[in-house]
Structure formats: structure tokens, C-alpha cells
UniProtKB/TrEMBL annotation:
Natural source organism: Nepenthes gracilis
This protein's name: ABC transporter domain-containing protein
Lineage: Eukaryota, Viridiplantae, Streptophyta, Embryophyta, Tracheophyta
Recorded family membership: Belongs to the ABC transporter superfamily. ABCG family. Eye pigment precursor importer (TC 3.A.1.204) subfamily.
Keyword rRNA-binding belongs to the record: no
GO cellular component, one term: membrane
Length: 723
């Protein structure tokens, strides 16, 4: 009910379409019901649209509370005198050609990102044929500020590949030729210059919707904004995406149910539109959404695009008629070939003129896909019913499009954009390094606290294991036999117990996936991530070294004195940090968690074997095993530190015939364990902490190196293909 007039009004009315404009309906225009239950609220931020030049049209499209929803293609002033010939040869009417070119905008019109691609080919290695399989075949197109380009086509036609190619995110096994220009410049999209909502949602499953977006706002938004402004922006985008009813719901993931798939999609979009990026890629933003939610999400994105003059490229499946009309241009693909690129409303006429008219009451986008999708063409039971095959239809459409006026217009538009060189794309200002490090530390700390698999499960296992150690070696005493028992117990703690830090690897791989998504979108730097991850884990590792450590230490009855226990706990802590750092390095190179665990376990197995317990140091084969592996293995310093901490200052009865009655701990260290006695146990500890720093720096270096090397390898490959 309208709060002011007290009258019920229709919410759902036919949308005004550029192809079949609505006659203003005075009754429908009177107002509308509140959008109760849809989850979408009126957003103050969008108020300005009501007063835009399209305001008069919007009055006839009462869809939401405000009735501000439809975004017909804007009609911008032409800035180029495009050749007129296109109108002659084309299928489209001259009025359509005019509307197409009338939307043409230029760099002078107020910045923004003009993206063009010409004759774009993408290939993937084909193992069976030992050659390259084309995935995209000679595509040409453009996207410009204030507009939303829809990429459509049957599943597997290359939509995601096109977005990846344009965003510079193709995998190393893929080749690319053709020209992709940003503002007419041959420029690689740097981190943070564009935002990409990928097809898969990589979100921190332990956070609530509000936390995820708010942390992201604090990470991404510049220091010039106050914290309250950042949080307000976060809350605004949450409402824009209709998530206000689930702000306190956990995102969830495997093993923990949280928000729905469609809500996850919207959280991903929220995070990427926070900074209002000038160039936004959306891979199936409406997957999992009902038709009303799809409409609201897309209309808000279209409005933001128009308001902020941002360029939006979205791949989309099954858009409803309402959603379809929100797109300014349509890029229709089939098996990587371009079937149509042009104004969305003109596609209907293009299909009709080629013998595929859209039946009445059928959604045009459904009709296009039904015409060109050949995946399910042959009816398995009844065979082909004599209908024209999709392959034939695709061939007709491709050939027809290549001689159409729309294609001619497209070529001209791409040429015109490429001709004028605009400004280089610059990364917007961001939060300071300290803010990013602080927020990442906090977010990671919360995540570790809530993820049982990260530390809590490990703590429980460690306590159980230390109880086992404590009871097996209980009251070890000071007999001659206790020398060997002490050595074995300390070796177990230094190697096998710390080895179990590997158990956090799956959680860490999840973290890395989120890091990779956020890093590619330029949310923060590698340094801030490494610092955040390191600092957030320290309190948990302290707890894990202290509680199980105290159980093992005092049940066994190792050297009395708090300083000895503190040293024991510090070595345990350093070893766990080292194992974690090692696993971080592994995760940055081997992102698959099963392969990562096997690799990490293998590396640690080699180091343990070489730590000086299973084979005494002087017996290790000199080349390789003694020099350098023995000195690289952190187990060597941990074991020797433990031994010095325990044996120094103790005396044991000597059971060797003819020898002295007692034997000192120092002698045992020298003769039995072959420990290097030239330096104190604190040096061993310092080396361990030094190794932690080196490992973390290596992790940082590897990520940085991969970021630099990957584009270089891609460039090299491209040059080779071109030769
Ligand atoms: N790295 C790759 N190596 C080999 N083939 C690939 C690779 N990436 C994509 N392909 C193939 O390229 C084609 C297009 O894939 P793409 O993911 O772009 O399709 P899509 O249109 O996004 O499909 P969907 O709508 O199902 O998401 C598919 O046949 C896919 O198998
Ligand atoms: Mg896809």
C-alpha cells in the first residue's frame, strides 16, 4: 500500500522496451506497492537517477518501492562522424543505425574506460591432437563507459574465456592473439584497475555477510575516507544487493551451511562494487538468483555504471525479458564465434531477417539460445525432427552478421575508439599499508578463531598426543637408560609433533584462494597479506606450544626450572611457525591441497631424516646430505637446541666398564648426540626464528615473482605464436 495515498498499486507492469516502447499508462504510473519480502530496498545513493534525463520513462516502470529501476540504453551525443555506408548494406534500419552511433561516446566526454578487442583469438593446448584448440575465434568488440555489455551464448561457448582474456587472466596453458586496447592503448590491466566477479564465489566462509563486506571496505577504500564512511558504504552496497536481511548470517561453505548460493553471488558483487571500479567484469552475476532478484541486481549495476561512468561487461545465462533490456549491447557467441555484436534491441530484428523470428510471448534471449545451441539437438529417442540444425543456423547467422551494417558499425566504432589515445588507466587510491595489514590481521584472526580446522582441532590433537608422550615417558628419571629415552622424546616433539602443523593446510589453501581473488582485483598488497597472516597466527601458536608443551614437559619430568620450560616452548613455537611457513610456500606453488600436503610432507620427511637423529651428524654422507641439507634442515637446530636445554647441567651414572662413575650432560651431547657445542642453545633458537623470517620472505618473494613472471611468460608465448 502506498503510504501516502493509501491505495494499492501494481508493482509488476510490462517494462518499456527500446524495441516496443510502452505507452504511458496513467494507472500504473500512480504508484506501487512496497517491495516487501524481496529483500531489495530503496537506496539513497541512487536518488539522482530519478532526476536523470530518463526520469520520465522510469515513471512508467514501477518495479520497486521507488519505481526507479529500468535503465534503457542511454542516448549520448555522437562525437565521431561515423561513415554512413553502414546504413546502406546493413540489415538494420537507418533509425537503428542512428541509435547505435548516437550512443557513441568519446574520451573527451568525461573519462572512463574504453575497452576494445580486435580479431581476438584464444587457444588452449589440445593434448589429443598435440596442437592448439581454438576457444575464441577472431572476436571484435568494445565496451564503453556508462554501458553494460552482455556476453551471451550456450554453455561452453567461451564467455568466461572472453572475460578472462579481456581482464588479462588467461591461464598459462592458453594462447592469445589479437589486439586488446584500454583507452586506445596497448596496456596490461594492472592489479586494482579493474574488478572481476568470477564465476566461482571465493569468500571467507566463517564471516558474516556484513563482516565480509565491511572488512573489504576497510581494506579497499582510501585513507581519505573515515572509518564510519567506509562502513556506511559497505552497508549501502549490502542494501543495494538486497542482502539487508542476511547481514548477520554466516557465509558458510563445506561442512557448514550458511547463506544461499544466490546470496553468495551478491556478496561477491558487493565486494567488487565497493570502490565503484571504472571497469567491472561480471561472470554470471545472476546465477542462483530468482528473476526478481536478477532484475534488481542487474538494474542496480546498470545504474551504477551510468552514474559512475563505469564500463561493465557481464556474461549472463537466461536473462528475463526485463533483465535483457537493461543491457546496452549484446555480444552473442557460439563455439567461440561471434554471431552478433550490437545494440541489444536490434538482435531481434537481425534474427528475424535471417529467418529466425522470435515467436510471440517468447523471451528474445531464450529464442537466441534455442536457435544456436546445438548441444542437445539430436533427440535421443526420436531422432531429429527435420528441424534446421543449430550448426546450420549458426553458420547462416555468422555469415550474415559479417556482411551486416551492424558489423560495419562495430568495426567503425572500434576503429574510432582505437584511433584516439586516451589516458592510461590508473589504480585508484587505497587504504594505507598499515591499515591493510591491521585489517587483514584482524580478519584472519577472526577466521582462525571460528574455523575449527585451523587451530582448535590441532590443539585437541596436540593435547592428546602430549598426554601420550607424557604417559609413555612418565618420570623419565636420571638413569643411564634415560639418556636414550630423553633423546627420543625430544626428537619426537621437535619433528613429528611439529609436523602435524601440516593439518592446517586445507584451511590455508582456502585462504590462499581468497587472497588470489582479492589480489587480482588489487584489494591489497602481498606484504600486507604476509604480515596479516603471520601476526594473526602467533597467538594461536603460542597457545598450542604452551598447553600441550606444559603437559609433555612436566609429565615426562624434564629439567626443572622455568627458563628451561620457556626455552622448550619457544623452540616448539618456532618449529610450528616454520612448518606453517613452509606450507605457505608450498601453497603458493602447488595450489591443490592434496598435492600440497604430499609435497609438504615429503619435504619435511627429508629434513627430519637429515636432522641428526636417525643418522648421527658425523655419519651423514658429506656431499649433499651433510652439506648442505643437514644445515638447511630446521630440525637440526630444533633437536640440538632441545638437547642442550635438557642435558646441560645434568649428570648420569656411567655404566661403561672402566670409565668414570658419572657422565655429564655436556659429554653426552658431544659424544652420544654429536651436538655442535661451539655456541649456546640461544643461538639455535635465534637461527630458528631467523629461518621463520627467511621462509616468510621466501613466500612473499615467490608470490611477487609469480606475479611478474606469469605476464612475461604469456607475452613470450604470444610472441612465439605471432612468429
Ligand atoms: N584452460 C583450458 N584448457 C582447455 N580448454 C579450456 C580451458 N578453459 C576453457 N576451455 C574450454 O573452452 C570452452 C569455453 O569455456 P568457458 O569457460 O569460457 O565457457 P562458458 O561460455 O563460460 O561456459 P559456462 O556458461 O558453462 O560458464 C569450453 O569448451 C572449455 O572446455
Ligand atoms: Mg563461464
Amino acid at each position: 500500500m502506498d503510504s501516502e495515498s493509501g491505495v494499492f498499486r501494481l508493482r509488476w507492469t510490462p517494462s518499456p522496451s527500446p524495441t516496443s516502447p510502452l505507452v504511458p499508462n496513467a494507472k500504473a504510473d500512480e504508484g506501487q506497492l512496497h517491495a516487501n519480502g524481496t529483500g531489495f530496498e530503496d537506496i539513497n545513493d541512487l536518488e539522482s537517477y530519478r532526476s536523470s534525463s530518463r526520469g520520465s520513462l522510469e515513471r512508467y516502470f514501477p518495479f520497486s518501492r521507488t519505481g526507479v529501476t529500468s535503465v534503457p540504453a542511454p542516448r549520448l551525443q555522437p562525437s565521431h562522424s561515423l561513415p554512413k555506408e553502414g546504413a546502406k548494406i546493413g540489415h538494420t534500419s537507418s533509425s537503428r543505425d542512428e541509435s547505435y552511433s548516437a550512443r557513441a561516446t568519446s574520451f573527451e566526454d568525461g573519462g572512463g574506460v574504453f575497452l576494445t578487442w580486435k580479431d581476438l583469438w584464444v587457444t588452449a593446448a589440445d593434448k589429443r591432437k598435440e596442437g592448439q584448440r581454438p576457444i575464441l575465434g577472431g572476436l571484435t568488440g568494445y565496451a564503453q563507459p556508462g554501458e553494460v555489455l552482455a556476453v551471451m551464448g550456450p554453455s561452453g561457448c567461451g564467455k568466461s574465456t572472453l572475460l578472462d582474456a579481456l581482464a588479462g587472466r588467461l591461464g598459462l596453458n592458453m594462447g592469445k592473439t589479437g589486439e586488446i586496447l584500454v583507452n586506445g592503448r596497448n596496456e596490461v590491466l594492472a592489479y586494482g584497475t579493474s574488478a572481476y566477479v568470477t564465476q566461482d564465489d571465493e569468500l571467507m566462509k566463517t564471516l558474516t555477510v556484513s563482516e565480509a563486506v565491511r572488512y573489504s571496505a576497510q581494506l579497499q577504500l582510501p585513507s581519505s575516507m573515515s572509518i564510519s564512511e567506509k562502513l556506511e558504504r559497505a552497508d549501502l552496497v549490502i542494501r543495494q544487493m538486497g542482502l539487508q536481511d542476511s547481514i548477520n548470517t554466516v557465509i558458510g561453505g563445506w561442512g557448514r551451511k550458511g547463506i544461499s548460493g544466490g546470496q553468495k553471488r551478491r556478496v561477491s558483487i558487493c565486494i567488487e562494487i565497493l570502490t565503484r571500479p571504472p571497469l567491472l567484469f561480471l561472470d554470471e552475476p545472476t546465477s542462483g538468483l530468482d528473476s526478481a532478484a536478477s532484475y534488481h541486481v542487474m538494474s542496480r549495476i546498470a545504474k551504477l555504471a551510468q552514474k559512475d561512468k563505469s564500463t561493465v561487461i557481464a556474461s549472463i545465462h537466461q536473462p528475463s525479458g526485463e533483465v535483457f533490456e537493461l543491457f546496452h549491447n549484446l555480444c552473442l557467441l557460439c563455439s567461440g564465434r561471434l554471431l552478433y555484436f550490437g545494440p541489444t534491441p536490434d538482435a531481434c530484428q537481425f534474427f528475424a531477417q535471417n529467418g529466425f523470428p522470435c515467436p510471440n510471448l517468447r523471451n528474445p534471449s531464450d529464442h537466441y539460445l534455442r536457435t544456436i545451441n546445438g548441444d542437445f539437438e539430436v533427440d535421443i529417442e526420436e531422432g531429429n525432427q527435420g528441424e534446421m540444425s543449430a550448426e546450420k543456423a549458426v553458420n547462416i547467422l555468422v555469415e550474415s552478421y559479417e556482411v551486416s551494417g551492424t558489423y560495419y558499425q562495430l568495426q567503425n566504432r572500434v576503429l574510432a575508439i582505437c584511433y584516439q589515445e586516451g589516458e592510461a588507466l590508473e589504480k585508484g587510491s587505497q587504504a594505507s599499508f598499515i591499515t591493510q595489514s591491521f585489517i587483514l590481521t584482524r580478519r584472519s584472526f577472526v577466521n582462525m578463531y571460528r574455523d575449527l580446522g585451523y587451530y582448535w582441532l590441532r590443539l585437541a590433537i596436540y593435547i592428546a598426543l602430549c598426554l601420550c608422550v607424557g604417559t609413555i615417558f612418565h618420570h623419565i628419571g636420571h638413569s643411564y637408560g634415560s639418556i636414550q629415552a630423553r633423546g627420543s622424546m625430544l626428537m619426537f616433539v621437535a619433528t613429528f609433533l611439529t609436523f602435524m602443523a601440516i593439518g592446517g593446510f586445507p584451511s590455508f589453501v582456502e585462504d590462499m584462494k581468497i587472497f588470489q581473488r582479492e589480489r587480482l582485483n588489487g584489494h591489497y598488497g602481498v606484504g600486507a597479506y604476509v604480515i596479516g597472516n603471520t601476526l594473526s597466527s602467533i597467538p594461536y601458536l603460542i597457545v598450542i606450544s604452551l598447553i600441550p608443551g606444559v603437559i609433555a614437559y612436566y609429565l615426562v619430568g624434564l629439567q626443572k626450572g622455568l627458563d628451561h620450560f620457556v626455552y622448550f616452548a619457544l623452540v616448539l613455537f618456532a618449529c610450528m611457525m616454520l612448518v606453517e611457513s613452509l606450507m605457505m610456500i608450498v601453497a603458493s606453488i602447488v595450489p591443490d591441497f592434496l598435492m600440497g600436503i604430499i609435497t609438504g610432507a615429503g619435504i619435511q620427511g627429508v629434513m627430519m631424516l637429515n636432522g641428526g637423529f636417525f643418522r648421527l651428524p658425523n655419519d651423514l654422507p658429506r656431499p649433499f646430505w651433510r652439506y648442505p641439507v643437514y644445515y638447511i634442515s630446521f630440525h637440526k637446530y630444533a633437536i640440538q637446541g632441545f638437547y642442550k636445554n635438557e642435558f646441560e647441567g645434568l649428570t648420569f651414572p656411567n655404566n661403561q666398564i672402566g670409565g668414570p662413575e658419572t657422565i655429564t650432560g655436556e659429554e653426552i651431547l658431544r659424544s652420544v648426540w654429536e651436538v655442535e657445542m661451539g655456541y649456546s642453545k640461544w643461538v639455535d633458537l635465534a637461527i630458528l626464528f631467523g629461518m621463520v623470517v627467511v621462509y616468510r620472505l621466501m613466500f612473499f618473494g615467490i608470490i611477487k615473482a609469480l606475479e611478474t613472471l606469469e605476464p612475461m611468460i604469456m607475452n613470450q608465448k604470444r610472441q612465439l605464436v605471432n612468429v
